[in-house]
Specification:
about 180 residues; 2 domains
Length: about 180
């Protein structure tokens, strides 16, 4: 893959990522432990350590258009395994946020992006997750309303799914957090 990168664009992209991440990309010395432990690595187009290196090199377009940043489930296995304490899962969050701000949508992982949006909207309106509302809105938006429907009665019976959600008392503080990132 040959990509000609303007040096100033590279520096700006790296600086933006490092600022949002609160860490230096050069901290990663490409040992590959993050990629070896990733449970969804087999589905990714680039491994987590490749994404870090590509980001450090300023390869903004391939990074922000990769499946990898959307497939990361933020299980933190990668971050836990990193001998340097680099927040690998954190960089995936940052890259998703940058892609979203730039209006870049995954060409293959549409449902994942829908879930991220519904999840954040749920937190924005309640201050925390209300699972029933989250799943309901996600199912409506993906037009898969009855998928996994048989699980709900069992979860309700076992007390794992509540019929009503609570809002945090300081919902204005939550709204401010979202405003600060817009």
């Amino acid at each position: 893959m040959k990509t000609i990168i303007n040096e100033q664009d590279r520096r700006n992209f790296v600086s933006q990522v490092e600022t949002m991440l609160h860490d230096k990309l050069a901290k990663c010395y490409q040992c590959g432990k993050c990629s070896a432990g990733c449970p969804v690595n087999f589905e990714m187009d680039y491994t987590p350590n490749q994404i870090i290196k590509m980001t450090e090199l300023g390869m903004q377009d391939p990074v922000l258009n990769s499946k990898t940043i959307w497939l990361c489930v933020s299980c933190n296995t990668c971050s836990t395994r990193c001998p340097k304490g680099f927040e690998v899962a954190g960089i995936m969050d940052v890259l998703r946020e940058i892609a979203t701000r730039k209006g870049i949508e995954s060409k293959t992982e549409k449902e994942i992006q829908v879930f991220h949006k519904v999840f954040l909207d749920n937190v924005k309106s309640n201050g925390r997750i209300f699972e029933l509302e989250l799943v309901g809105k996600y199912r409506l938006k993906t037009k898969r309303l009855f998928r996994d429907m048989f699980l709900a009665p069992k979860m309700i019976e076992k007390g794992k799914l509540r019929m009503s959600g609570d809002k945090v008392s300081a919902i204005n503080s939550i709204a401010k957090i979202f405003r600060d990132f817009e």
